[in-house]
Amino acid sequence: SSTKELTRAVKAYVEPGDRVVELGAALRDTSTAICEAIGPSGEATLVDVKRSFPKREDDKRTTAMRREGDDVTFYTDRSEFVEIDSFSCWRRALFFGECQNNAPLASYDVLVADVSSIVGNDLDLQAISLVKEFLELNDNMPGQGTKCRVVIVKSGALNAWARRLVHAQRLFGGKISDNVRSRLAQQKQDDDIHVGSKRFIPPIVVGTVGVEEYRRTIPYIVQEGNAALELGCHLGTS
Q: Which domain of life is it from (predicted)?
C-alpha cells in the first residue's frame, strides 16, 4: 500500500536475470530497486504516462521522483524508459512495440504496478482488471515459454480488500489473523456507526468453492440473532 512496501517486495521477489516491467515508473526508488535486483543479466522496462517533471527541490516527495534526463544515465545496461500518452496505451507499449515492427516482444517474469500512478486513481476493480489483462496477454504470447512468476501491486484499495478476504480452508483450520478472528466474533455494530465513518469496520469476506464448502462456513460466521441476507439460496437448503 506504500512505496516503501513496494520496494521491499521488489527486493524480496525479483531475482537476477528476470525480465521485469514496471507500470507507473514515477518514483526512482522502486525503479532503482528493480534494476539492482535483476542485475546486468536482467531487463527492466519502466513505463509511465507522460507528465511534467518536478523541479529540483529538497522536499522528500520531489527528490524521490524521476527527473528529466534520468533515462540517459539510469542503468542503461539493463533498463529502458517508455513514456506513453495515456494509460490505455500500455498494451501496445509492452506487447507490440513499434521498434519491433509491431511484432510481439518477449514475455515478462515480473509485473510491478503502481496503480494510482499509472491509472490516475486507485480502485480495487481497476487494479484487478489491469493484472488479469496483463497476465492474459503475457502468458499467451506465441512462441514464448516464460510465464509471469510474480505480480507486485501498490494499491491501497486492493491492500484493504486483501486484509478482509479469508480463504474458507484457512477459516476451517483456524489459520486466520487475530483481526479476522475478533471481527467474526464481534456482534453487530452500533446503529449510529455509518459506512465511511472512521468507526465503521468493513465486513470480512470469506471465499469458498462449491456448495458444500459454502455451507460449512455458516457456523463460523452466522451468530444467533443476526439479520442475514442470502442471495442464491439453493432452493432453501442453505
A: Eukaryota
Interhelix angle 28-38/3-13, nearest 10 degrees: 10
Cell of 27: 518514483
In whole angstroms, give the CA distance from residue 64 to residue 74.
14
In this prediction the pTM is 0.77
The domain locations on the chain are 3-154, 158-236
Query: What pLDDT digit, counting tens, does each position of 158-179 carry?
Result: 888 888 899 999 999 999 888 8
21-57 pLDDT tens trace: 999 987 788 999 999 999 999 999 999 988 655 555 5
Q: Does domain 3-154 have CATH number 3.40.50.150?
A: yes
In what helix (H) or strand (E) does residue 47 lie, and over which residues does it extend?
Answer: strand 43-49
